[in-house]
User: What shape does this take?
Amino acid sequence: MRKLKNFLIGLGLVILLTITLMLWIKLPWQGAAALVVLFALWMALTRRGRQAASVTMVGISTLRQRLGSSSVIVIGIAGVVGVLVALLAMGEGYSETLRKTGSADTAIVMRGASASEVMSVLERDNVVIIPQARGIVHDAQGKPVASAELVVAANLPVKGGGPDDVGSVQLRGVGDQAWAVRPGIKIVAGRKFTSGMRELLVGQGAQRQFAGLNVGSEVKLGNQSWTVVGVFASGDALDSELWADSNVVADIYRRGGSRASVTVRLANPQAFDAFKAELEADPRLKVDVSTTYDYFSKQSEGTSKMIEGIGITVGLIMAIGAIFGALNCMFAAVAARAREIATLRAIGFRGGPVVVAIMLETMLLALLGGLLGGALAWLIFNGYTASTLAAGSVGKLSFEFSVTPALLWSGLKWALAIGFIGGLFPAVRAARLPVTTALREL
Assistant: This one.
């Protein structure tokens, strides 16, 4: 019966600890700051709080004598935080690149139930009807600012690879209105392609990834030779694409008059609902309509979740190692300070302040490790350029790692959680150690 009772108590403590850690991981920085203020007030205004502060200062003053073991905790936790933040920064950078590609005042229309542009086929009649809907901006000539586009996948040799190392690139066939729909795209070298000619504009990201995309170079796509005539910059996912005349792309890839999508510029974001309702109510059309922001954000969901899952899994595995390292170091520290702790207990210090002091010492080391790991992740990976092997519907995508303040805060919370677990059991042992037993230990 006693064993069962102890088991149930232990199980309850594990469940309580798990719930506490889950709430802590979700806590915003404002909540953490409030907890710190309340804890500081407790230490300053209560007798036990002042006792805990005194014991903590004694422990911190001996850290130099335990520099080796303390470094194990700091470096172990720094490694966990650095790896976790770097992996999450990769997912954040990927998602941010796709989110920047869209906006709330542009809409994309595809065939119904199409997951992406490469899977969509709009017949010529549909391409003519869609730009006639209300809510679309018109240019100075009275033409709707709508770009019917064709998207196909092509293969090109990867920079730095062998002759058989090729990667997937997205070739987008566009017309004159593509520039009005996306006014942020700038030509940074060469010129625009000429309508009716096999000429290519290449994004800066694609130029970094693939060989032979300099202005004036000849490349083979769709069993035809193309001439690179210019380089454009967009600062988003389009940077990883190649652009050409839509009619030429349709002829070479045998798409006839069909197109993959129609992208339009709306008068304002509020015009989207009416635009979508009109197209979906038209019996001649079977289309899906979304803002380009929503479309590209959705394209990033699967890959971002996968990267986040990998990051958390790797972080948990490393965190377990760091927790055991902290446990070993703090148990050793408690054993070395057994007489000191027993003396404090003998002169009137309660067990609570002792627990708090050892926890604070461990959390301080964890905080240092978290700050070190976050700083290294920011210095090494923030702005680091990478590319996907194959990003599904968006081809081989070039993007930059993004170490955001939110990710750094998440890393610090992980570090403090590791410190909390690593210091809890040694602290409880120190508080429960009989005074007479501790005084006899060497």
